[in-house]
Amino acid sequence: MPVHWYYDRSALKRDYGLVTDYLAPRNPHPDSILWRSSYQPPNQKGDILHEQAQYWGRGGVHYHQFLKAGENTLNLRLCALLIDSLNDRGRYDPDDYLKRYVDFMTTPGRHRDTYIEECHRNFFSRYARGVPLRRCGSEEKHIGGLVGIVPIAAFHRSRPDSAIQAAIEHLSLTHPGAKMESAASLLTHVLVEVLGGKPLKDVLLEGIESQASPYWGHPFLKWLEEPDDMVIGRRLSPACYVDDSVPAVIYLALKYHQNPEQGLIVNTNLGGDNAYRGAVLGALLGANNGMEAFPERWLSGLLCPPPELEACAS
Question: Which of 253, 252, 262, 249 is nearest to 298 (CA)?
Fold first, then answer.
């Protein structure tokens, strides 16, 4: 989180060194785009910036400036809302999730993230104009949306068809579009297969051989012989767009399928959209290796772990 959207790796290293643990963010963020970001809701109904609005349009402002070490970013807080909905309803209920989502985003003080991604701004611009909730999403292509389908894959892990259907439905609420649907199908399939007991490496190799999705269409096995910062930097962009970020996750998951700690540290220090790329990567590595494969300091250092994690750790 503190090095999220650092595209200058030398600046990342200068500001934080080699990141191996949770750290608090600090200003200035040299690659921040908040100076050219804006959001003007059509009316009060669409206000989602609240007290953070004063920092928009200013240079050097860190996207997550008020978060503490081990605290989750906005998209992961929304992921926790989905977990609550699944647990309370006993099934995936998009309307229940949408009610929670609107309440969370429009109530001041529910989170402390400064940056609100474009998907949420587009959603609430349309919501404020009276568009029905199910139709407020605008076509998207960012990996940040994929973190929300991880709980759905886990919840429906014994029903693969239901998992993919629900994942696509959920993603369409805020991240509709063919690219996101294809990415959701791929990720959900891999997660369900691995949660069902199949080794992650085998599932990934099968996907590469199948070429069933454009995201599989890269020379991953050849790339395994190259340095990580060449693969994610020259071969693939470290940015958030799924055309590159999903193949980047596949590459890292294949290379570090048995070593979650090293894989996630590598991902973090590669910069770019490492936070959401890392959330998806962490889900794959966790499904393959179990919670015990993660360092204890990472588990105990979470400020707001989901109830399931707290129960397992106690």
Answer: 262
Residue 4 lies in a domain: no
Residue 273 structure tokens: 């959209």
Please state, in angstroms and rounded to a whole number, the distance separating the CA atoms of residues 238 and 133.
32
Q: Which residue range(s) make up the domain with 108?
A: 9-313
- The pLDDT-based confidence of 311 (bands split at 50, 70, 90) is low
Count of alpha carbons within 13 Å of 208, Cβ hemisphere only?
Answer: 17
Domain assignment of residue 3, yes or no: no
Q: Rounded CA gap, 20 and 120, in Å?
A: 30
Alpha-carbon distance of 207 to 213, in angstroms, equals 8
- Tell me how long the chain is: 314
Dihedral of CA 244/249/251/252: which sign? positive
Decide if 183 contacts 215 (C-beta within 8 A). Answer: yes
d(CA 230, CA 236): 8
For residue range 146-178, list pLDDT tens digits in order: 999 999 999 999 999 999 999 999 999 999 999
Phi and psi at 159, nearest 5°, equal -130, 80
H-helix or E-strand spanning residue 76 = helix 74-89
* Nearest-angstrom CA–CA distance, 143 and 243: 9
For residues 279 and 276, give the distance between their C-alpha atoms in angstroms, rounded to a whole number. 5
Identify whether 212 is part of a domain: yes
Helix (H, G, I), strand (E, B) or coil at 103: helix
* Separation CA 128–CA 125 (nearest Å): 5
Domain of 292, CATH number, reads 1.10.4080.10
Identify residue 127 by its one-letter amino acid code.
Y
Evaluate whether residue 2 is within a structural domain: no
DSSP state of 45: G
pTM above 0.85? yes
CA-to-CA distance for 80 and 76, rounded, in angstroms?
Answer: 6
Residue 289 DSSP SS3:
helix
Number of structural domains (the chain) is 1
